[in-house]
Write a structure and sequence with these properties.
Length: about 120
């Protein structure tokens, strides 16, 4: 099992930056982490993840060039650096982990473990 706890959310003005953290415990190897977000009244949507081998990262088109996913294996922590934030980035951001390789890494159902989420609010 993998337990995931997010932190780092908050209120920021448009154009600002935030860094989210996701601390993993339990199983600390053999999984690929990712980030999703869910705005009120909308479905959960893919934000970013690593390839199964960890040598590539993938992003939603809406965040490409503004968000960066990174990982500190020594700390069992995954980060999401968010820059040039926009009001439409407002959502609850969830960390997730998948325990098998898949081409469906943009699909929430491909992930086996989820954190509770952290709220990000971007004001205009």
């Amino acid at each position: 099992q993998v337990q995931l706890v997010e932190s780092g959310g908050g209120l920021v003005q448009a154009g600002g930056s935030l860094r989210l953290s996701c601390a993993a415990s339990g199983r600390t190897f053999g999984y690929a982490p990712g980030w999703f977000r869910q705005a009120p009244g909308k479905e959960r949507e893919f934000v970013a993840t690593f390839s199964w081998s960890g040598d590539r990262s993938y992003y939603a088109d809406s965040v490409k060039g503004r968000f960066t996913i990174s990982r500190d294996n020594a700390k069992n922590t995954v980060y999401l650096q968010m820059s040039t934030l926009k009001p439409e980035d407002t959502a609850v951001y969830h960390c997730a982990a998948r325990v098998a390789p898949t081409s469906l890494y943009r699909v929430p159902a491909a992930y086996d473990y989820w954190g509770q989420g952290t709220q990000v609010t971007v004001s205009s």
